Amino acid sequence: MATKGAKVERNSVSEQPHELNYEAKKNGTTSKAVEAAKKETGSNKRTTVEKAVKGK
Questions:
Q1: CB neighbours (10 Å) of residue 39?
Q2: Which residue(s) pair with 12 in the sheet?
Q3: Contacts (Cβ under 8 Å, ≥6 apart) of 15
Q4: Which residues lie in Basic and acidic residues bias regions (predicted)?
Q5: Cβ within 8 Å of residue 16, ≥6 positions away
Q6: pLDDT for position 31
Q7: How far apart are CA 32 and CA 27, in angstroms?
């Protein structure tokens, strides 16, 4: 298993439905809101997306 790729995956939120649902459940919001936060920030970094979701 490549550790470099695993670290990248933990720090980002992909477009996959299960990832969006996980972030939504974790932050108490909807997957649509997480998707909108990704578009709004222009980033897929987990910390950036979480800050944007919590700020709404």
A1: 9
A2: 45
A3: 35
A4: 1-26, 35-56
A5: none
A6: 95
A7: 12
How high is the pLDDT of residue 24?
Answer: 95
The angle at the Cα of 51, spanning 48 to 55, to the nearest 5 degrees, equals: 145
Residue 2 has pLDDT above 60, yes or no: no
pLDDT digits (tens, 9 = 90+) for 3-56: 666 666 788 999 999 999 999 999 999 999 999 999 999 999 999 999 999 886
As a whole number of angstroms, the distance between CA 31 and CA 1 comes to 29
- Token match 């477009």: residue? 15
Residue at token pair 């222009």: 42
